[in-house]
Amino acid sequence: MRRTARETEESARRVNRRSLLMGGAMVAMFAVLGARMRYLSVEQADEFRLLAEENRINMRLIPPERGLIFDRNGKLIAGNEQNYRVTITREDAGDVEAVLARLTRLIPVTAEEMERILRDIDRNSPFVPIVVADRLPWEDFSKVAMNAPTLPGVTPEVGLSRHYPLVEDFSHVVGYVGPVSEKDLEERPNPDPVLRIPEFQIGKIGVERWMEETLRGSAGNKRIEVNHVGRVMRELERTDGTPGQDIQLTLDADVQNFVQARLGEESASCVVMDVNTGELIACASSPGFDPNLFVRGISQRDYSALMEDDHRPLANKTVQGAYPPGSTFKMVTALAALEAGLITPDTTHYCPGHIEFGDRRFHCWKRGGHGTVNLASSLAESCDVYYYEIAQQVGIDKIAEMGKRLGLGIRHDLPMSAITEGIMPNRAWKQERWGQDWRIGDTINASIGQGYVLASPLQLAVMTARIATGRAISPRILRAIGGQPVDMPQAEPLGLDPAGLRAIRDGMFEVMNTQAGTAFSSRIADETMVFAGKTGTSQVRNITAAERARGVVSNDDLPWNRRDHALYVGYAPFDNPRYAVSVVVEHGGGGSAVAAPVARDAILRVLHGDIPPLTAYPANQRGRIETDLNALRDRLRNTGPTGNSRA
Amino acid sequence: MSFLEYQLKTVPTGLRKVLYLNWPLVVLVCAVSAVGFLILYSIAGGNLSVWAEPQMKRFAAGLLIMFAIALVPIWFWRNMAGLAYGVSILLLLAVEFFGVVGMGAQRWLDIGPLRLQPSELAKVTMVMMLAAYYDWLDLKKTSHPLWVLIPVLMIVLPTFLVVIQPNLGTSLMLLMGGAAVMFAAGVSIWYFVAVGALVVGAVFAVFTTRGTPWQFLHDYQYRRIDTFLDPSADPLGAGYNIMQAKIALGSGGWGGKGFMQGTQSRLNFLPEKHTDFIFTTLGEEFGFVGAFSLLLLYGLILFFCFTSALQNKDRFSQLLIIGLAANFFFYLAVNLSMVMGMAPVVGVPLPFLSYGGSVMLVLLVAFGLIQSAHVHRPR
User: Which residue in A308, A583, B198, B222 has the most C-beta neighbors within 10 A?
Assistant: First the structure.
């Protein structure tokens, strides 16, 4: 429309006024935007900077290599084995199904596993590698590696996993590692973050568990930058961890293997100990199990089989088995009496086969009695009545005190699982445990290591070593950690009267080396290795008066789990003690017949440093023993040369 | 209406027109676009060919179009207003029937190599139409209810076609752009007060009908509003965009992390980092200083637009410049409010920075018209 000049002026005036209004509003809005910008990037900058860093930076742990475990000669007990596995990465594979189909032609994959693989691939981001097969044999692994060009996205990987080359020999002492459970995390107040790495394994029992911190080392870490879906873009920083420290044990793998084989299928245990240092040379519990099964994740069937076996293969009987020590306890009673000055080595008692006390009759194992016995012959022939008599004079508290001085009823601290304290009862103990007064009958039972008294094979070996040396020897299993020898304090003298100790040792000599001795047939003929010891046979059932009248049922006629335990403790050489040995064969029958021969073979093995020569055995036994040793030789592991030495 | 009302003697002719262009405005537009190229280059991780190069090519082509439009007399464009408006409406209808569905909405037409968003074009043609209308209308009738209803219908028609696409952001921009022209033309302030009151009522209605079969908005639009109101409630879900945008802006601090050092954008934490959220990368890499400088550039562009409008005595030219400048302002104000967490996430690009062909083209067309009005102003 054509406008007059006045109208044009009016229009421009109005538009200009409104424009200025709008311009003002815009300036205001700009001020708001500027202020908001300032608020975000200046005032709140620190907070947002932190959030941005959190967005992009992740810490990844680099698991440390676990320390190795060696025997005293540097033979590998627990090592890290290369574990071959194959993974697939979706984004590199392209057609996942086709690649997997090709892969299954090379390596066996069960339908179940395939389902898991496909599910994992589905659930994870395309760049996450999924494990297709773990612990592949080398042949399968190399097949995959060779066919790599036709398998896009498939990566053959080498990891490390724990391996126990000596299989069951050290299953109880060293134990095994396994995946970290929720319980493991809860037990630790401040768990090492490395434990949260999937597939990380920690010690579950034995040395693996109790030396976990030493063996584990510390994790390294890397700071990595990730993008919005978590893909690793680059490594920003890397701190290498320290590998776990190697541990050298005092145990001798070859002796351990020999002893383990010697125990055979029995439910039994044997401890061989250096009497001067307390070092355990062998610590065998039979039957054993294959710890490698646990590392891989034991199948339910294998596990049930181990759990249901009445010989309890999972139990470490050397330290956790608590047995009535039977006659092996008699040295304690005798020493308590000697130390109290109540008897001398020449003190005699008459054994009619039993004693009457109140309305109860306490029997000697020999129905007809031993006649007149002194200290040495009471040990040699294992007369019970002698101890019934002297124990009544000494009283339980002094016996218990002597027991503890000799290492019974106290927990010996070793890096092993479920170490028992045993029981060394006294008046206070009975009051506390049962709320009852101690009775003389209890003392009589305790005097021959029955009743409430319980001891582990380890404790019995410690007791023997202390008697042999007169020093407070403590057991040890760690020889060196990370190449540094573990220091070995000189054991303090026990402060016992040397004459009394000598009398006990003489008694133990007679057990082995006199015709009347209960273990005469297990003597060592080699004069440089004279053996001294004590047998024990401990009842696990009550023999009623009626049964006694009929004639005690022989062990052979009883069911296995009702038979007596066979025990033996001893040391050699007699004049210069080097090793102590203890053997417990559960429900084995008589100590002299069952336990003492095992102990003799074990101690000869360690003294000789090899399978003992026949000349060490009494001439009349050599024929039989040769057969036995040959049979045993076939069961021994050929462990090859020593010196896998990182220790 | 004819060109006779312009005093032809004073209008430059031929190539001399080039000298009379509003050169500061040309330089500012180029400067802002250059900032855009820089950021697109950085976001692509130092790669020119991903986003920066196509954007530069479009800008170059758009710049030629801008100059071409600038050299054509403004009265020609005024006479074309009706036609342009009509074509836009037809294109909006076409997009309804033949449009490409993207992100749950029909928004663009594929015409050969060109991917056209008719809704962007409508913003410019509607302003032209309204300016022409008020140029034609007797001044005295400006606030007469009947003569107010006509431009309102002109605004409502394209807005309706865009809102059913559905594209809430652009339809709001159309409403505000239209309102700006009406406001500048001098329509009584009471109409705006009344509409304002109606909007408040409508917002109330929108929220009270939520969840009923006759709810006004799509579910995703409601969710965006929820997210806007409390972005941290669901940081990995719908609030993720806003949260990450704020983290990027905030972590830039005073001086920024440096060119190509923005972790948020480089590591892909930022959503739509090359389009609607491009400002966050600027803030992250160049900090408050960089972001504020951009704001300043935008402010200068608007300043030169307004001074050009104030110098002009021609009613069509004035209203056209104000309307297009207001549109430009709404683009950046809505986009910046959105990425800074002051407004819900609606798909509005940042002018001259966001990657995209239609928007760049339409913006340069708009600035061509502004230049034409400037060159051919009555003197």
Answer: A583
